[in-house]
Amino acid sequence: MADLNKIVEELSTLTVLEVAELVKSLETKWGVSAAAPVAAAGAGGAAPAAAVEEKTEFDVILTEAGSNKIGVIKEVRGVVPGLGLAEAKKLVESAPQTLKEGCKKEEAEEIKKKLEAAGAKITIK
Hints:
This protein is of the alpha+beta class. The protein has helices spanning 4-12, 16-30, 69-79, 85-93, 105-117, and strands spanning 58-64, 97-103, 121-124.
């Protein structure tokens, strides 16, 4: 059996171009590919996780007003443009309600943080 340490030392002296040429030669000689293998589907035939698209639009849903309803109403008015006091109060009291649809993840997280600080319970879908 060949001395593996000696082979490793010799390979370490090669340039990147020489390594690329070596890889091509070995692929040709052995009939294999050095490309990274693609994730195979599971035994049940499930699709690989990489095929799932990342969600880019989120809905912010007020699930519960909490104990500080006045604070939540104020924050809701700031989140939903053009909403008057009476409309905001009605929206908060009729929870669960969608506050904002189709917003980016960062915006949804910011809205959630503000409303939860006011005492509301928020869900992002």
